[in-house]
Batch of 2 targets.
Target 1
Amino acid sequence: MTIVVGRAVELEFLRWLGERLPADGRAPLGLRDDAAILELSGPRVVTTVDMLTEGVDFLLSQDDPERVGRKALAVNLSDLAAMAARPVAALVAMTLPRDGALKLAQRLFEGLIPLAEEFGVALAGGDTNTWDGPLAISVTLFGEVSERGPLLRSGARPGDVLLVTGKLGGSRLGHQFDFTPRVREALWLAEHAELHAGIDLSDGLSLDLWRLCQASGVGAILDVANVPVSEDAARWAVRLADGSTALDHALSDGEDFELLLAMPREAAERLVKEQPLACRLTIIGECVTGECAGKAGLWRREADGSLTPLVPRGYEH
Amino acid sequence: MTIVVGRAVELEFLRWLGERLPADGRAPLGLRDDAAILELSGPRVVTTVDMLTEGVDFLLSQDDPERVGRKALAVNLSDLAAMAARPVAALVAMTLPRDGALKLAQRLFEGLIPLAEEFGVALAGGDTNTWDGPLAISVTLFGEVSERGPLLRSGARPGDVLLVTGKLGGSRLGHQFDFTPRVREALWLAEHAELHAGIDLSDGLSLDLWRLCQASGVGAILDVANVPVSEDAARWAVRLADGSTALDHALSDGEDFELLLAMPREAAERLVKEQPLACRLTIIGECVTGECAGKAGLWRREADGSLTPLVPRGYEH
């Protein structure tokens, strides 16, 4: 059979993957037919896609392909967590540099498969290509809405408090690859508490908070002294030595992949007292009525109570 | 707000797209939340993804971005047609060269949107990035199975005849961009005839026929004199002047995006007689029992009835 490099790599890769993957009753066809068929529990599908690329989201000269493959799925799991949706299946489309394409594809999947198994994601299909360009990998993830319905960005109300999972900042020291998407936390919280709105922190707390506020038509006051700053945010500030503080990084570094939630104060305070999850829950501020004198309505409140405008600042990648 | 090129392009593009697109009740969230929510008519989703890349699937120096954007959706529509599934919604992930990224994204969508409208596909979300590499565009398409269930590659039986839509070969002269995915034809045929198996011709008739046979565990005899050869296949053979014939191109050129179906002879003969569709239907062979003396079980039959092995040969892209 005369076929060319791209297809030959795809066939060889699919043969390897067929042996590597466990059979999964929910998506039996995607690897050997024109499309995958997913059997869900209801007619409502939550779906998201992210494309990661060399030089933007990773550097193969520094980052193991296994970590890159894991991240390609993890960022999408984080998006589903933000909707409080249960992951079901994924499609993986890749375009690989021609040299060493098969080995690279296998290593990407050696990182991706364990995370898929951990979160019950069936790898239902995809598309494998080669080219003269650098690696691009795009994962589409499908999920089901829980009984509580999807968690949207747009449900925050004045008076809600802002709750965040984990610690923020300095993700470039490793967390950007090794984070655990907050799927379990989101599902648990959606089941046990009244959540009004949610977003995952992919581009920096201040920028993603601004997005949540924009979608909800509210403003927000961020109690900066309460923001949980990671040890890596402090290390990163020291390493950069550019005058930035650990708090600056907690406010504006991207790829924390923690959850930012808006919810009633009482429920949030109960959660913070009980700390029912493996990761810490922290109240970092509150929602207020929308714009203020034409300003974006985002404020930072210092420990002494003084208010200054908070400038949304995103991760420069 | 300090954000960088990639995000700035994405925000600007989403603003443009929000105005450009009609509102669609089925997928109201994808452009402004962490994920899209699709409301389907049942719990079974058919889904497929294809990533197209510069230098492999198109050359922006020759091919208008509008045609590239159209193709990125059309190839996925062809995959759904092969499953006899009804398209519902799509996600579009792109990584654009930094220079002129916004304009390129808009032109891609100016080609993609009319096709989406023609086939009732809601553009439900996506991911827009920039980098120093060439264009990569990945479309994930979602569909619903018709009442007859999905059409698989694996259902062909010995005695079935092979039916093909349209004409084959020479797609590089333009058809690879301008083809109409056979969605309507597939749905009509699935409703009005008994179909056993189907595949879309993306990599060349002989190779895709081999795939259908492999999936079904049958062999096949192709009546080469009956293969509908396109005018472009003849033109392409003349242009190449490498000794190849128009028939060679009809057998092995990729990107015809026609349907190859296996079905009972009587029903196929009725269809061929009635020609109920806008494109021609042609019987080009029959399925036979599986392997023959260890050979792949693919045969070509000349007009005089002589049989020789048919070598599956795919599109070299």
Target 2
Amino acid sequence: MTKRMAGNNRFLKEFNQTVILDMIRVHKAISRAELSKLTGLSPTAAGVIVNELLEMGYITESGIGESKGGRRPVLIELRPGSLYSIGIDMDVNYISLVLMDSTSRIIEEKMLAMPRTLIFEKVMKVIQHEVKNTINKYYLDTDRLLGIGFSVPGMVDSRECKVIFAPNMGWENVDIKQHFTELPDIKVYVENEAMASAIGENWIGCCQEISNFVCVNIKSGVGSGIFINGKPYRGANGITGEIGHMVVDPNGLKCRCGNYGCLETKTSSSYMVEQAKKLVKEGIASKLNDIEDIEEITAKSIIDSAKAGDEAARNILLDAARFLGLAISNIVNILNPQKIVLGKEFINYSDIVLDHLKEIVMLKALRQSSKDIEITESMLGERASALGSAIIPLKVFFGK
Amino acid sequence: MTKRMAGNNRFLKEFNQTVILDMIRVHKAISRAELSKLTGLSPTAAGVIVNELLEMGYITESGIGESKGGRRPVLIELRPGSLYSIGIDMDVNYISLVLMDSTSRIIEEKMLAMPRTLIFEKVMKVIQHEVKNTINKYYLDTDRLLGIGFSVPGMVDSRECKVIFAPNMGWENVDIKQHFTELPDIKVYVENEAMASAIGENWIGCCQEISNFVCVNIKSGVGSGIFINGKPYRGANGITGEIGHMVVDPNGLKCRCGNYGCLETKTSSSYMVEQAKKLVKEGIASKLNDIEDIEEITAKSIIDSAKAGDEAARNILLDAARFLGLAISNIVNILNPQKIVLGKEFINYSDIVLDHLKEIVMLKALRQSSKDIEITESMLGERASALGSAIIPLKVFFGK
């Protein structure tokens, strides 16, 4: 009984510490008196917890606040560099690594090109090497590393830390935790890349005060991360937001999922490249600006050509945006979110298509569902998933 | 300060009563000792609350439970007929009224045919007359009437108790509370008909233990009610689940929302009737069984013809189900719900099309999203919205 009570007390102590820490995080700088007032804990109890956190080095006294009568209070804030988190965004031809501290300050951000043919085991080896380099470079104490978040372009089982299916990576049923052997004591988390972006937007991006929103990422594939009531929405099996396989044209092309006319076959970067090659081959577009070899056409070259005034390239982007707008209007009719954030490759041609896409949504979605919707490009840009994956261990630490 | 404390104590007392009442509801019959154990309240405190509730007549001692050593305990249950609720389902050509008690027992259920041309004010007059008749018939004490729930086929503002837009009824911005003048002290609630069905399925139907599900109702229109994490999902403006206006065929017919190729133009009863008339006119279908006058074709006659073996009628239903399956596979990909319940008119031809619809969903939705999905017809049938609307005041009473 005594032992159990001790256990419960310990739990409550940690719970109180977490609540106080998160309150300091949200308020950025706050006095002991305000913490006592906001938590309902007595000034003494709040003071004890603050002292414990100071002793652990998680927080610091940062300055003097404004007086509300009497002595001006000492303000407390999270101590920069006291606790760390690492995020890894895995993609078809690159890996991004972000080192962040508990104040969400970015300490290091790097991108590594990866050959598309690399098998999962090799990718994990490269990542472990990079993580160790980063730890050594900054003399990080691994006790202060809250965890490593992985972002994967595919379906994941975030509870079991596994990748269920990532077709663009060629991965099926691979266990990230099992292959992360070099630092066995570090907590590892796995998230779908679009959900990782949504987590990033919610923590440090454009959805910080927003409960119901959808982040749509456009790249070689198309996916979305859905937040409902302020939390990632996971459904029955954790496979949600698969907007890329929404059928937008029942008579359309075959998709790699086996179906016909999925959004991915209309709006992904790979589709746009196929479309451009076809137009050039058929002589409908002479050539996209000064690309000589048809096989050299990439999403980037289409976007560059469109920006340089090439009508055919521009139309490819607008056509893709039209179908994306159609799919988003379906999402608006079903989920009536407050905000839609468009990310990844999209931000590179957002200036050309965003207005057109908004028009489509306003035209296609029910007026009552769409009247207050905000549709915007991601401010975190292509970094959203890497940042979001670094934030996952922070969310756990702050009890969010 | 003393007054505020008294207020808080009063609030806490009501809160405790509500928790205990809901526990009795969920367990159906439960002893004082079990209530104390489950709530963490002391046996004395739990006993005090039980006695208060007995005194108010909300609960009753019902029998003797099994002994767990010692005296066999007295069991407590909700007292049938102690508290009432009324539900009204308003539709194009009928009104359904349900009188229910707090045990979810149905005391009266009636359906009134309504001329389609009747204006809102007249409909409200008829309803008030019926409500008063019902109250008089059962000698109901209006103090014991928990409230009246209205179910409307359209967009509602459930917080403000208004109908925003119900195109099939011809209603826009009408205030139900304001027109319900005969019983000004009775609490009034308004809900969309598909959400009312979902509430019904969750309380007494086939989704009682299910957190994430979607009820799709097919009639003259097509709508859906979405439950997420065990609660109705309302989004930013309360306009969610508008599956009827999901674009399933970008080259399709014009919908009454102004858009083209919405699901409603493919799968609603009114569309099926149009389709049948067209086929007969064009001589593709000779005639639907023995319907002589083309203008007499109704959804019912199509269903009857299909059941009697008419191929053309059967194909109309299967074709409608194909598009419904397509829309549902989109919902499955986005929301990954545990269950989809199909209701209203659909249950009358479910035996002909449900297997086909399931095949489409299995074919079109991503395997990982659809593998555990259950797709079923509503067991509450066409009554789901009327029952659900009667349940709304009960949910409020039980703090749900």
